[in-house]
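Duplicate of earlier report; NAD(P)-binding protein input re-posted below.
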Amino acid sequence: MRVIVNKQPEGPPPKPSERYDPIEIKSVPVPNPLKGTVLVKLRAAALNHRDVYIREGQYPAIKFGSTLAADGAGDVVAVGEGVEESLVGRKVYINTSVGWESNPRVPEDPRKYGVLGHWPLPGTLAEYILVPRSVVFDLPAHLTYEEGAAIPLAGLTAWRALVTLGEAKKGDKILIPGIGGGVALFALQFAVGIGCEVWVTSGSEEKLARAIKLGAKGAVNYKNANWVAELEKKSGGNFDAVIDGSSGPNTKQFLRLIKGGGIISVYGAVAGSNVTITMPYIWFKSAQIRGSNMGNNAEFRAMTKFIAETKLKPEVSGVWDGLENAEHAYQEMRAGKQFGKLVVRIKHADSRL
Ligand SMILES: NC(=O)c1ccc[n+]([C@@H]2O[C@H](COP(=O)([O-])OP(=O)(O)OC[C@H]3O[C@@H](n4cnc5c(N)ncnc54)[C@H](OP(=O)(O)O)[C@@H]3O)[C@@H](O)[C@H]2O)c1
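Output:
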């Protein structure tokens, strides 16, 4: 089968700020199902910003020659010992978060936890993938393979940050910064589906307008110097929760924007990893800052039920045909112009299975 792997760059090592490891298509054997595992014939894979960070060398323990990307959907073609045969032929998508069943705070055994598309776990830019039975879920019937592949990593991250840690419920007032982000967009769709009042920020007027169409009540451009005052004036502040992937200088502004007892559920730091905040705000406001990392199988199951019941469709920004076009999807992600997910449709050179 063909897979996309990262490749050691030739010549002298690039400066860390210029690193972007090349990729290539490689031929490897189709894996045999082992006890408790499922072989999925992948039909589509999708990218997350993390996949670019991996090529930029920003993740620990990067191993050249590893199959890339975390999100995928396809058909079950074989199962290992102990897995129900009835799974064969089912249209599925895969939870990227492997080794976390339902423990509310962290994986049951952090040493056995990993995310697909980062060595030693396999990736989804491949014709087939072998994964544990526990991370294989029926694809809701209203979704195509491309839409299914668009959901797992960003959808699960948004679900945990919004529903589990953000405690979002009908009528809550929720702020979602940087709405062009893959995770942020799912948080918006889920929050609107739950019945929350959602406000968003973006650096792009076009993305703000699209978020309003998806159900946001109001939107502010964070590139305006006075965006916090503008947001406070328009929305009245008092947010129950901020679902945030930006951090940096924004965090102290979110402390101002939440209501007493409000939650900042943080999953990313695109605006800066180091944050200065005035600690008395935390206790005088009874504020809670909660770190949200991916999610578990119980949350994936709950998210899948919600998607099936509400017939939610993910925003797909672009679909590229064939593994040989994956680099175009990576370039689009690097440029950051997308609104929604970037998907690669997988064509099969070898159709023995
Ligand atoms: N904890 C986890 O489990 C987890 C999972 C997935 C991702 N992440 C992290 O979450 C972050 C976002 O990931 P992603 O895949 O959603 O990335 P992405 O699709 O590339 O989105 C990044 C978004 O950040 C927004 N942004 C940039 N500067 C901003 C600022 N100053 N203020 C507010 N928003 C700003 C942009 O929004 P606009 O385009 O609207 O301006 C951009 O679309 C990354 O740091 C990633 O590593 C964490």
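The chain has a mean pLDDT of 96.

Merging into the original ticket.
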